[in-house]
Every structure is written in C-alpha cells, then in structure tokens.
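Support request from a user on the community tier.

User writes: "When I paste my structure tokens into the form, the page sometimes reloads and wipes my input. The last time it worked, I copied everything first. Here is what I submitted, just in case something in the input itself triggers the reload:"
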C-alpha cells in the first residue's frame, strides 16, 4: 500500500529532475528572503541562477545548529511572521532552543508526509492510533496527529505520561496502533506486565517508534513483549519533525521522502561525501519548505545510504537506522564510543534488561566509565559468585566490542529512571 504511489515509486531520473527544480526554487527563495543565506552565497560566490545539476549542491553552504541558535528566534524564516501559522521549538536540553515556523502550506506538506510514513508502516484509515508523544513545542505529538488525521484514522491524542491511563485507554478504546518513543513503548509493556494486563488480549497490531535511537535487538524485545510489528521513523524539528523518513513493512531501512528532502552523507571531519553504503553524517536540504527552508543542515546523526532497491517497490532511497550522533559520541580514554554499541552487547546477554545508563566521570586526569545494567530478579538476588561472573562476562564482552575497559554495575530491575519521552542514557559528569 502506498499513500502517493506516483511520488513514492518515481523513476530516479524524474525524481532528480524534480529535486533539481525544487532546489533551484529554494535557493532563489532564500537568496531573496533570508539575509543569512544571501550573505553566505556572496561569500562563496554562489549564484543560484547558475545551479545546473544536483552536483552543484556541493557549492552551497552548510547550516549548523549554531547558525539556528545565532538567529533565534525568527532570523532564518523566509516569510513574514503573518504567514506563519505554527511554531515549534526543539527542547534545548543541550543548549539554547531553536525555533521552527510553518506556513499553512508547510503544515499541509508535513501532514501529507506523515500520512505517507504511517501508510508505509502499515497503518490504515480504519486504525485507532494512540499518540503517546508529548503535544507541545516538541514536534512528535502534533506532527503524528495531523498526519494520522490526514490519513483518516481515529486519533487518540493522549499525549505522553500517565502510564496507567495509557493502558486503560488502550484496552477501552481498542487501540490498534501505538505511536511513541521506543523506550516509552518498552516501559508501557513492562507496566502492563506489572498491572497483570495481557498484551495479547489488546487490539494492538503496529507500533511507530521514533524520536530517539534504538536497536534491532530492542525491536525484537518490543515485538516479543507486545503483539505488534515495530517500525522505525525518523525526523528532526530543524527540518520539519517526524515525516522525514520511515520504514515500510519490510523493516530494513527508512525510506527518505526524497521529493521533499535532499540527503547527503558526509564525513564529519573532511565534510566530503562518503560513498553510498558507508556510514557518515546525514545532511539534509529542504526542497519544499516555505516558512523555514534550510540548506545542507548538518544533523549530526550517523547513518548510511542503503543503495539496493527495496522489495516494497518504493524507489525512495533508504537510510539505515540512526546508529548514533556525532555529538552523542563519547570519547572515553581517547576511544570513540557510541551508546548503540553498548546497547547491542547488553541485548545479547541473557538475564539483562534493556535498561542501562552510562556514567562517565573523570578521576584525576583519567576517564572512567561505569555502565549500570538492570538485571532480572533471578540474577539480582542470586549468589555473589554468580553476580560476579555476570559482571565479568559483561565487562569482557564490552571490552572486546569497545576496545577499552569499562566498569559494570548490576542494578535491580526497574531502578533506573524511566522516561515518558526520550530516554537519557548518558550521564557525563566530566565537565569537559
Ligand atoms: O524527535 C522528531 C520526531 C518525533 C521524529 C517523533 C520521529 C518521531 P527532535 O526533538 O528535534 O525531533 O529530535 C531530533 O532525535 O536528530 C535524532 O538524533 C533523534 N531521532 C529522531 N528520530 C530518530 C530515530 C524529533 N528514529 C533528533 N532513530 C534527531 C534515531 C532519532 N534517532
């Protein structure tokens, strides 16, 4: 099932022609309306009129989160504020917030693209969708909401939190599709077990999870604990919110909505493109945004292009699940470590729960990393000897995966803080 077959299954040639025309229009628009880009174009001696092929994209300036912050709140908008009908803002947990503005048309496009990813994930107009993302400045709630309504499904705008009520509503309203972060979905599943609710007695059949990194092992865990097909979808507020890319039911990579977003994968050090199939930083250029167009936005998210065609028939290219962020990357004892590597090891070890936290500290001049791992009761209450064996086993596996030694502490099940939104996996106390 497609939402817009003609767009999702375009030939590469037609798609590239469309992308080029839209890129030309976007460049012209920002050259006229956004002083920041006008200045950048002048510095780079780039004349939008001379943009002849998609390869010329490389002559365009990058845009970074810092650029967005420097123009807080409205400095990069390409239309007057009276044409903006919606504002969102990124949470600002890692610094000053950034603000995104949408015209009426942008909201239409956004809803349409979210309807597209919902359809690709197997959601239909007769589904009952429970949206457990926060509604507010975060783009997750409203983004999925508008897309689900556009699709014609029945939407339950429950927002995040109040887990018992979520489960009650899920039972009473016969929810068929759950939309939230993967970590919250897991929390919901565990809470059901605690409340004595049998997930198989629910009407649930599909989950759309996104907003934070997760792993293949976590997908299996979710599919084991809930009677769902768990799909991944990706987006970011600076570009639009959810709806940038999403999995089809083959669940082997996320189709990028390339008729609206031009993607590049670059080496974050040299800023040069990497060959298809190699991991690098995702860079996105918006092709149809009116209110807040962005050129070559450096997402800091790491992924790769999957060049092979997908059996679903969509020609929109896929990216692999996001494996981490360049700024999520911890440098411990000089070695690059991504939380996803640690997650992969833990999921593979019998008796651990998929809840963990990475604490990084500095002792004198040395980094020290401790991984807190929740374990099932049978192990937590087992003999000291067995626990020590388990710790040594995890340590050895982590050392061989990461290339450095880390400390491991087992903690009792359900003791690490649960999140109703994005999980906090890293606590860095080094004040670097
Ligand atoms: O998280 C938009 C969104 C909401 C996407 C709901 C999907 C579903 P931000 O709050 O601006 O926007 O955070 C964007 O979250 O740069 C990634 O690092 C991370 N992220 C989002 N989706 C995924 C995913 C929304 N599926 C940042 N896998 C992005 C891994 C993700 N990371």
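"...and here is what came back when it finally went through:"
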């Amino acid at each position: 099932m497609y939402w817009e077959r003609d767009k999702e299954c375009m030939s590469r040639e037609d798609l590239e022609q469309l992308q080029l025309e839209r890129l030309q229009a976007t460049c012209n628009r920002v050259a006229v309306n956004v002083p920041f880009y006008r200045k950048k174009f002048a510095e780079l001696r780039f004349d939008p009129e001379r943009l002849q092929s998609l390869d010329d994209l490389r002559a365009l300036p990058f845009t970074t989160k810092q650029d967005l912050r420097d123009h807080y709140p409205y400095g990069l908008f390409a239309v007057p504020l009276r044409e903006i009908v919606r504002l969102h803002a990124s949470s600002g947990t890692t610094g000053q917030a950034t603000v995104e503005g949408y015209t009426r048309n942008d909201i239409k496009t956004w809803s349409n693209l979210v309807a597209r990813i919902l359809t690709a994930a197997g959601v239909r107009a007769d589904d009952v969708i429970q949206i457990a993302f926060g509604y507010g400045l975060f783009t997750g709630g409203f983004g999925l909401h508008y897309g689900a309504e556009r699709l014609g499904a029945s939407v339950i705008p429950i927002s995040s939190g109040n887990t018992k009520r979520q489960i009650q509503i899920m039972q009473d309203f016969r929810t068929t599709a759950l939309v939230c972060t993967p970590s919250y979905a897991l929390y919901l599943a565990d809470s059901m077990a605690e409340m004595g609710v049998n997930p198989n007695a629910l009407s649930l059949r599909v989950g759309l999870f996104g907003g934070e990194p997760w792993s293949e092992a976590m997908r299996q865990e979710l599919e084991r604990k809930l009677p769902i097909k768990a799909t991944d979808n990706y987006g970011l507020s600076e570009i639009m919110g959810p709806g940038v890319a999403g999995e089809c039911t083959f669940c082997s990579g996320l189709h990028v909505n390339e008729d609206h977003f031009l993607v590049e994968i670059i080496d974050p050090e040299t800023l040069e493109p990497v060959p298809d199939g190699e991991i690098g930083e995702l860079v996105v250029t918006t092709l149809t945004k009116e209110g807040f167009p962005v050129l070559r936005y450096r997402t800091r998210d790491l992924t790769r292009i999957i060049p092979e065609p997908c059996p679903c028939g969509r020609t929109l290219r896929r990216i692999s699940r996001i494996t981490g962020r360049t700024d999520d990357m911890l440098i411990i004892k000089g070695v690059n470590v991504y939380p996803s590597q640690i997650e992969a090891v833990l999921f593979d070890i019998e008796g651990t729960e998929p809840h963990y936290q990475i604490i990084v500290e500095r002792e004198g001049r040395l980094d020290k990393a401790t991984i807190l791992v929740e374990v099932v009761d049978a192990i937590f209450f087992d003999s000291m000897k067995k626990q020590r064996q388990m710790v040594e086993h995890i340590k050895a596996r982590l050392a061989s995966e990461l290339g450095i030694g880390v400390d491991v502490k087992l903690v009792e099940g359900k003791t690490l803080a649960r999140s109703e939104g994005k999980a906090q996996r890293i606590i860095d106390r080094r004040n670097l």
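Agent notes: The reload is a front-end session timeout and is unrelated to the input. The CA atoms of residues 59 and 370 lie 44 Å apart. Residues 90, 133, 138-140, 210-213, 232-237, 241-242, 299, 301, 322, 325 surround DLL (CB under 6 Å). Escalated to web team.
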